[in-house]
Write a sequence for this structure.
């Protein structure tokens, strides 16, 4: 019996120790710190973020999450620019939601035509404007979102022309920008809304979250800079 109690205590202690290395919301894990990840949102206020208009963000942080809704701009953007990177964030939506994650935005005053958007939407389909799509360009292979009110984990990886999107641990959309050589038209001939060939979009720019008139929350916003900076 004594040996059993000692072993039980050891197991419990080991479990507690393993749990203690996990980071809380809006913090980096020890492994992330060692790998060079950067925390872009402190979970308390809008430090490091502004509207794409250059103005301060009018909306307040709610329960440790950024809120683009009624921020005063089309996007809230981070002050740093990134080229090659991996971005992780968690997003929660209202029952009705239309928003997006923008990246490599070259001109904050014209994010739609100088950046790429990953759609955040409460619609449950797999079309060009559904959750996880590369907006108006690539359909997601599946809609891997969780029920309304639950947090979804999104990972966006950019390496040169290659863009990869994962939702809740599964890759759902991919694109090689170099294959998109015509303005307003994709490799398969389908028309899109962009006045410039996607191949010619900036390969470095701002990361931002969209206010498209619906409530949405973002937390655990972390980036690993692939440029080595």
């Amino acid at each position: 019996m004594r040996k059993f109690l000692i072993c039980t205590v050891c197991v419990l202690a080991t479990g507690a120790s393993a749990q203690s290395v996990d980071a809380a919301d809006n913090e980096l894990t020890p492994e992330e710190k060692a790998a060079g990840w950067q925390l872009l949102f402190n979970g308390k206020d809008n430090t490091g973020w502004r509207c794409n208009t250059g103005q301060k963000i009018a909306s307040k942080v709610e329960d440790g999450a950024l809120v683009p809704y009624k921020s005063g701009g089309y996007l809230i953007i981070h002050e740093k620019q990134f080229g090659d990177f991996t971005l992780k964030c968690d997003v929660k939506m209202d029952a009705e939601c239309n928003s997006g994650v923008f990246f490599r935005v070259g001109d904050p005053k014209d994010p739609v035509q100088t950046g790429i958007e990953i759609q955040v939407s409460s619609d449950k389909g797999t079309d060009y404007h559904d959750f996880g799509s590369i907006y108006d360009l690539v359909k997601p292979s599946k809609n891997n979102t969780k029920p309304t009110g639950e947090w979804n984990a999104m990972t966006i990886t950019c390496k040169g022309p290659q863009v990869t999107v994962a939702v809740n641990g599964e890759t759902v959309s991919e694109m090689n920008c170099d294959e998109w050589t015509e303005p307003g038209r994709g490799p398969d001939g389908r028309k899109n809304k962009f006045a410039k060939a996607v191949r010619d979009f900036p390969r470095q720019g701002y990361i931002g979250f969209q206010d498209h008139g619906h409530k949405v929350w973002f937390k655990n916003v972390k980036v690993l800079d692939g440029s080595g900076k």
Notes: The mean pLDDT is 92. Residues 2-20 form the longest helix (19 residues). The CA atoms of residues 99 and 212 lie 5 Å apart.
